[in-house]
Write a structure and sequence with these properties.
Order of helices and strands: EEEHEHHEHHEHEE
CATH architecture of the largest domain: Orthogonal Bundle
Helix content: 25-40%
Structural class: alpha/beta
Largest sheet: 4 strands, mixed
Length: 194
Amino acid sequence: MIFLKSTVNVVIISNYQINGLFFSIGISSITGKIVKISLPHQDETKAMKQISDEYPNYEVSEKYEDLVKKITPLYAGEDEKIDLKILDLEVRESNESPIKTAFMRDVLVETSKISHGKVGTYKSLAEKLGTHAYRAVGTALRKNPFPLIIPCHRVVRSDLTIGKYAGGSEMKKELLKREGVTIKGDKVIIKNIF
DNA sequence: TCGATGGCTTGTA
DNA sequence: CTACAAGCCATCG
């Protein structure tokens, strides 16, 4: 009897701290790609928990510290270009997969095209995808595994009010401000939307 | 499988 | 300005 070593997908979590904020990323040991990144937290365990909750089979390592470090300027509002190839954007039904449907992938890819300092709306994204599923665009973005890299904070309501955000509307506003977007009260002031 | 639930939008009052 | 209702459609339990 030959026993093959099973290829278990362990997610490697690496952390980085800057200005008292903790960022975590999870990388698949099989694909080497990012399966999830956390929003910044004041508490390291909370940042890590965002990943470990979804990927219980994980290990903590400093292996990808340089990579998680590259994410942090995005939170500062810098226009950092990050290659989407480092993300696991492949559609797979397995629950090891961050993206299970083509619709979600399409929403994320379309969102990634919104450039620094610009905003799109749930409606404008839906229309680019050729559907009227505005709400579904919202639900897809709510589950965005790659916040900051896939800039879901740049997607607002079609009346240009800020809309919701996993990290809270205040953080969404703050991120947009740092990117140079003018915000008055609860509304984005911008001429042309994506 | 099917009804309930959304990071929504539009219309009406 | 606020408050609903109805429409929308992918996802979840």
